[in-house]
Amino acid sequence: KAGVTQTPRYLIKTRGQQVTLSCSPISGHRSVSWYQQTPGQGLQFLFEYFSETQRNKGNFPGRFSGRQFSNSRSEMNVSTLELGDSALYLCASSLAPGSYGYTFGSGTRLTVV
Amino acid sequence: AQTVTQSQPEMSVQEAETVTLSCTYDTSESNYYLFWYKQPPSRQMILVIRQEAYKQQNATENRFSVNFQKAAKSFSLKISDSQLGDTAMYFCASPDSNAGGTSYGKLTFGQGTILTVHP
Q: Which comes out higher in pLDDT, residue B52 or A1?
């Protein structure tokens, strides 16, 4: 059974550009969450999606957006990149929000130069 | 809203010995859950153990156990017979709870403790 797949693994972007990160959950999982991990701020919650609907949103500026497709795959987009957006972005999936069995992917390492 | 605090940025232990990682939290909820996650160099977060607040018995998973002190809002992780593969960053975490129920998809994490197991 394939795990949570995040693509790409590594990404280098220039300040001002936009970026889209992808997360494919475990087959059958319908709930997807995103987190940003930085050395200074640690792990911070970004979004939570279930059945294509955003259930929760963290305290991030509007430059950060996300969506979930009918096949449960999710994408997050960051527009007008800033140096401070450099981070590891982690995705996690589960059958439903009420299930504690969230499985994390290995993340996408975004570097903004 | 939950807050989670880990006061030990780094810890080290010799192989086969026991180590305890500390975590304190704050919540206004009466029923809640607490987790310990492990993040090895591969970057993937792995659930180590979970504790339900209404259960007085401390959770145990093989070599991993917790010391849950509800009144003190303390949730420490004990690793017995430490192995080299236990080297990782460990995070204490709590899911968001509100009137709509508990959402395990929205976790509040502590700052993490880097654990190094030496041979």
A: B52
Mutate to test the interface with A, among B50, B97, B104, B114 (most CBs of A within 10 A): B104
| A90 contacts in chain B (CB < 8 Å) | 43, 45
Q: B97, A98 in Cβ contact below 8 A?
A: no
Average pLDDT over residues B92-96: 87
- Backbone phi, psi, residue A51, to 5°: 50, 50
**From the CA of B80, how many Å to the nearest CA of chain A?**
24
pLDDT of the residue at B99: 54
Cα distance between residue B78 and residue B73, in whole Å:
16
Helix, strand, or coil here: A95? coil
What is the per-residue pLDDT across A20-34, written as a single tens digit (0 to 9) for each?
A: 999 999 999 999 999
* Selection from A107, A92, A86, A71 nearest residue A19 by Cα: A86
**Closest to A47 in 3D by CA, of A35, A29, A61, A30:** A35
pLDDT at B95 over 80: yes
* CB proximity list for A26: less than 8 A, separation 6 or greater: A1, A2, A3, A4, A93, A103
Amino acid, single-letter form, for residue B104? Y
d(CA A112, CA B99): 39
